[in-house]
UniProtKB/TrEMBL annotation, chain A:
GO terms for biological process: protein targeting to membrane. It is a lipid-anchor. Belongs to the ERF4 family. Its main location: Golgi. The keyword Membrane applies. GO terms for cellular component: Golgi membrane; palmitoyltransferase complex. Pfam families: Erf4. This is Golgin A7 family, member Ba.
From TrEMBL, chain B:
Residues 553-567, 664-679 have a biased composition (Low complexity). It comes from the Eukaryota. Belongs to the DHHC palmitoyltransferase family. ERF2/ZDHHC9 subfamily. The keyword Phosphoprotein does not apply. This is Palmitoyltransferase. Its EC number is 2.3.1.225. Residues 102-222 form the Palmitoyltransferase DHHC domain. Keywords: Acyltransferase, Golgi apparatus, Lipoprotein, Membrane, Mitochondrion, Palmitate, Transferase, Transmembrane, Transmembrane helix. Residues 285-299, 615-653 have a biased composition (Polar residues). Residues 310-320 have a biased composition (Pro residues). The chain crosses the membrane at residues 12-40, 46-67, 148-172, 184-210. InterPro entries: Palmitoyltrfase_DHHC (IPR001594).
Length: 148, 703
């Protein structure tokens, strides 16, 4: 039984930064809804790290050449066996977001949704409010389904 | 029966791909069976294996092009877009490498299409880097599978050349007996190959050029970059490299989240800055911040209140949507109470009307109209969320203007979150505006409002807010943090530096509108503020006052004129989204002062429609080539280099314009007078109820 429960109050959407084209990059502008919830530097660090991950995933270089050649040579059968570089980086991103959520955002009543679930268009940050209710099961905290 | 016709349509979609696959596989098989043995014998042993390898690549690329997800963007969740679709502005401008690109609102998918994204009506989804919908593979060609389609075309060309030449060699050696089985089959294969050779080679060359130029078929056919610069090109070699060697992006659809959920459990940590200054934050933060002196007056916006200078209250850091609603409610209530007071009250009731229109509109008011610091204090609140002001207004209790300022302070919400909200005025509030229209009718003074300054600021260059405050009022308002001004007044504030509250020439984007009627005209600065969401009556009265002031004042606004120009890319570093929501076009005639043509959404769309439909054919629904352009998968034919101001209309309006344009493109007027642009900004009020307002209700009061 927990004395407090959290309920979803609001969602902030961090939009894409298209200033460099269609590469995946998110705006680092600090939304004012988060002003009272998290330090600006933490937020910016998270977004910048994500941007770096995506830049690494989309980098055209030796790795992508190799992948392309292999795919071509094997008539794309290689895709059945191996995961692409992008998918590898996406897994890293997913782990990173999970870790950030656990360590930084959830303690502040926030949750970051992986952009891949939104088609890489937005980073969705859910803002939770402390309802302060005891033992209420409705509208209580988020994704966890553990009992209260 | 609809179901059978739908089924026929669906079945019909498989016909071209079946034909293509059948011809490809069948012809090649016949070639290998009937011609290759002779070729292996008499030409080269290596010839058939090479052709076989080529055929293998053709089939592999064909399969990938057919079955690979093109980069389908999943539809947005409901909570990502809280507004109703028809209230959303149709376009948002984004700067890509210094060039303004327009993002169109996708009514089906509920988001603004990223650059180069388009909606395929055949498949009914948005595709990233949409190229075209190819019926021969029965699939959209987009970011993920364009290289396979391109390679399919190239390898098919090579394969066809090989098959044709092999068959030709055979036939030339067997001229004497062309009716033999092998020769006949070879001839048939050759004829099929020859028949499709020209279209395939033509298409392959076309895509070679596209790849070299870094364009998609969509962009090429709609002429987006005609006469303009393509912001997406990286140079010929880099473009080819990007197409062929870039990493394959992942599928966006159908990705289940397998991570363990993260528990969010109060109590929540607070940021250090808040811990240090507890006064700023409260659960109902905004209310706590109001200074006690302000809370004494029940009438938030009465003019006498502002005459009392006092220490400016600290502004709340966080905009709480519930709070905003409550503030709106309180403000409105106070406005209503003050109605009986007289002109000030009437002013306030007007403000209430303004309040109700959630300032998701970012319209640009012609400067002439906004120049004066009008007579009224308006607590302008920017609605950051989709809020119902009706309920909130009922809850609010005696909020001071400062608290309203605080609300406006929170209007510094990043545009990324505001964009969704700031799209247009809420329909919900339209009827209320209509209700109050008559109330405001008695008001003699014009009103000026800057409801969505923060949003307006997103439109770089077009928004400049003049403070409508008198010096005394400014003093009491205190210093508005520049931090939130900066993004919104890119051009306006450029030369001004920090705001000095005591400055008589305020340029703050204060959303509060002072009742300038009590002030002498000289307090009214040339106001570059632009507003779009005032009711027609208000705008009419403002216009009248405007005209009068023109005669009195110097043309300060000429100094501000540059700010109204088409958005500068530098003003929009983060790709702030512009375009006030335009629900409908008010049909008041152009009684406004001249406004820059760029901002006239209606003019723009009319002119663009004229361009689009008179100078360019609509995207062909079908063509002899393999390009199948679904209707309206592309956005306006105008390139991004046109109409950077893309003021939006509601999609319904835009569609009606399109239809109108389609029917009679020749009758489309040229770019409408820019003065009529401001009328569009009253789109927030442009519902039928609002149109009850009439100008005569707002005679200008020169007191």
């Amino acid at each position: 039984r927990r004395p407090h429960s959290a309920s979803l109050a609001n969602k902030v959407f961090i939009q894409r930064d298209y200033s460099e084209g269609t590469v995946c990059k998110f705006q680092t502008k600090f939304p004012s809804e988060l002003d009272s919830r998290i330090e600006k530097t933490l937020f910016e660090d998270t977004v910048k790290t994500l941007n770096n991950y995506y830049a690494e995933a989309e980098k055209i270089g030796g790795h992508s050449y190799l992948e392309g050649c292999l795919a071509c040579i094997t008539a794309y059968l290689i895709f059945l066996c191996m995961e692409t570089r992008y998918e590898k980086v996406l897994k890293k991103i997913s782990r990173y977001i999970q870790e950030q959520n656990e360590k930084i955002y959830a303690p502040r009543g926030l949750l970051i949704t992986d952009p891949i679930e939104r088609g890489m268009r937005v980073i969705e940050i859910s803002i939770y409010e402390d309802r302060g209710s005891s033992g209420s099961s409705s509208g209580s905290s988020t994704t966890s389904s553990s009992g209260r | 029966m609809p179901s059978s016709s739908a089924e026929r349509v669906r079945a019909g979609a498989y016909l071209p791909v079946s034909v293509a696959a059948g011809l490809l596989a069948g012809s090649s098989t016949l070639f290998f069976a009937f011609t290759c043995p002779w070729l292996a014998e008499h030409v080269s042993l290596a010839f058939p294996p090479c052709v076989a390898v080529t055929f293998l690549f053709v089939m592999a690329n064909f399969t990938m092009a057919t079955f690979m997800d093109a980069g389908v963007l999943p539809r947005a969740n409901e909570d990502e877009d809280k507004d109703d679709d028809f209230r959303a502005p149709l376009y948002k401008n984004v700067e890509v490498r210094g060039i303004q690109v327009r993002m169109k609102w996708c009514a089906s998918c509920h988001f603004y299409r990223p650059p180069r994204c388009s909606h395929c009506s055949v498949c009914d989804h948005c595709v990233e880097d949409f190229d075209h919908h190819c019926p021969w593979v029965n699939n959209c060609i987009g970011r993920r599978n364009y290289r396979f389609f391109f390679l399919f075309l190239l390898t098919l060309t090579v394969h066809m050349v090989a098959v044709f030449s092999g068959g030709l060699l055979y036939v030339l050696e067997h001229l004497e007996d062309l009716w033999a089985l092998r020769a006949a089959v070879t001839l048939a294969v050759m004829s099929v190959t020859g028949l499709f050779f020209i279209p395939v080679v033509g298409l392959a060359c076309f895509h070679l050029v596209l790849v070299a130029r870094g364009r998609t078929t969509n962009e090429q056919v709609t002429g987006k970059f005609q006469g303009g610069v393509n912001p997406f090109t990286r140079g010929c070699c880099s473009n080819v490299e990007f197409v062929l060697c870039s990493p394959i992006t992942p599928r966006y659809t159908g990705k289940p989240g397998k991570r363990p959920p993260v528990r969010v459990q109060p109590p929540f940590q607070k940021p250090e800055s808040l811990k240090r200054s507890p006064g700023k934050v409260g659960d109902n933060g905004i209310q706590n911040k109001s200074p006690p002196s302000k809370q004494q007056s029940p009438r938030v916006l009465s003019v006498p209140e502002f005459k009392r200078p006092s220490t400016p209250p600290p502004l709340p850091p966080k905009p709480d949507p519930v709070l905003l609603k409550s503030h709106l409610a309180a403000l409105e209530e106070s406005l209503l109470h003050s109605q009986s007071v007289g002109p000030p009250g009437q002013n306030l009731s007007k403000m209430g009307q303004i309040l109700e229109s959630p300032s998701r509109v970012h319209y640009q008011v012609p400067r002439e109209q906004m120049r004066k610091r009008e007579n009224i204090h308006f607590p302008m609140t920017c609605r950051f969320q989709d809020q119902s002001s009706e309920s909130s207004l009922d809850q609010i209790d005696k909020q001071t203007p400062i608290s309203v300022h605080s609300l406006l302070q929170s209007s510094t919400l990043p545009l990324n979150s505001l964009t969704l909200n700031s799209r247009s005025l809420s329909l919900k509030h339209a009827h209320r505006r209509g209700d109050r229209a008559h109330v405001l009718g008695q008001r003699p003074e014009p009103l000026a409002s800057r409801p969505s300054q923060s949003i307006l600021s997103g439109r770089s260059g077009s928004l400049s807010y003049d403070s409508l405050l008198s010096p005394a009022e400014l003093a009491q308002r205190g210093a508005y943090p520049l931090s939130y001004r900066a993004p919104f007044l890119p051009m306006d504030m450029g030369g001004r530096g920090p705001v000095d509250p005591q400055r008589p020439a305020p340029r703050t984007c204060s959303p509060v509108f002072m009742a300038a009627s009590r002030r002498s005209p000289q307090h009214r600065e040339a106001s570059p503020v632009h507003y779009d969401n005032l009711p027609k009556g208000l705008m009419g009265s403002i216009q009248e006052l405007e005209e009068r002031e023109k005669q009195q004042q110097q043309h300060q606004q000429l100094l501000l004129q540059p700010q109204l120009r088409p958005q500068m890319p530098t003003q929009d570093p983060l790709g702030v989204y512009d375009t006030p929501g335009r629900r409908s076009l008010p049909h008041e005639s152009s009684s406004r002062g001249p406004t820059p043509p760029a901002y006239g959404s209606r003019e723009f769309l009319m002119s663009s429609a004229a361009y689009g439909y008179s100078s360019r054919t609509q995207p062909a629904c079908s063509s002899t080539s393999s390009l199948s352009r679904a209707p309206r998968t592309s956005t306006s034919p105008l390139g991004s280099n046109v109409a950077l101001q893309g003021r939006s209309l509601s999609p319904s309006i835009y569609r009606s314009l399109e239809r109108q344009a389609q029917r009679s493109p020749s009758t489309l007027p040229g770019p409408l007078p820019t003065s009529s642009y401001t009328t569009h900004k009253a789109l927030a009020f442009s519902t039928t109820s609002e149109q009850q307002d009439s100008d005569p209700k707002y005679p200008v009061n020169e007191s």
